[in-house]
Known about the structure:
The protein has 237 residues and is α/β, with parallel strands linked by helices. The chain folds into 2 domains: 2-120, Response regulator (Rossmann fold), CATH 3.40.50.2300; 128-235, Winged helix-like DNA-binding domain superfamily/Winged helix DNA-binding domain (Arc Repressor Mutant, subunit A). Helices cover 40% and strands 24% of the residues. It has 8 helices and 13 strands. The strands form 3 sheets. A 5-stranded parallel sheet has the order 2-1-3-4-5, sandwiched between helices. A 5-stranded antiparallel sheet has the order 9-8-7-6-13, covered by helices on one side. α1 (10-22) links the parallel β1 and β2 (26-30). The protein is elongated, with a radius of gyration of 18 Å.
Amino acid sequence: xxxxxxxxxxxxxxxxxxxxxxxxxxxxxxxxxxxxxxxxxxxxxxxxxxxxxxxxxxxxxxxxxxxxxxxxxxxxxxxxxxxxxxxxxxxxxxxxxxxxxxxxxxxxxxxxxxxxxxxxxxxxxxxxxxxxxxxxxxxxxxxxxxxxxxxxxxxxxxxxxxxxxxxxxxxxxxxxxxxxxxxxxxxxxxxxxxxxxxxxxxxxxxxxxxxxxxxxxxxxxxxxxxxxxxxxxxxxx
Length: 237
């Protein structure tokens, strides 16, 4: 998975990066809120790991910007020396998915990150229902429907479709797609393969304004799935 770390202590950031890299994640590190927010506007990640105390904005302020200004609901784990109950409660109320108190231990960090990622993808249940009206999906069965009619998709196409729906409104780079759908260890897969699959998926899903969704190419960067109506894509278990 692709993880963005916001941590102003270079030694701590590098140590955390190594731990998560050894757990087969791809990690980008940012030392200040400004560069972090600039990066998440132009690229996509599977999880954010935020420090609380930073040189410009606090981690809580960054979390608020993600949730309320950018409509970015990527899972967030806060890691901070603030261990008071009121700080933990505030972090969770602001929209954090988990909270780690420094000094962070390697095994706990990796386990917490993995648990948050599993929850965000509904992997704790064999069959999870997702709604992206007029589309609906059943995880576990790998079934995607348009207004109740099943769409014939390969497993890879199904994974790709769910990834786009879950990242609606965000630019998703080809590199992220290669990591998330094909696996970062598969060096033989080219960006041309990504483009071919996306083109085929766009046709199979019949993505057009009449169905409320579009999937656009972003020149030299990647793709963006967007909902055209006022209602944001939602999921329900």
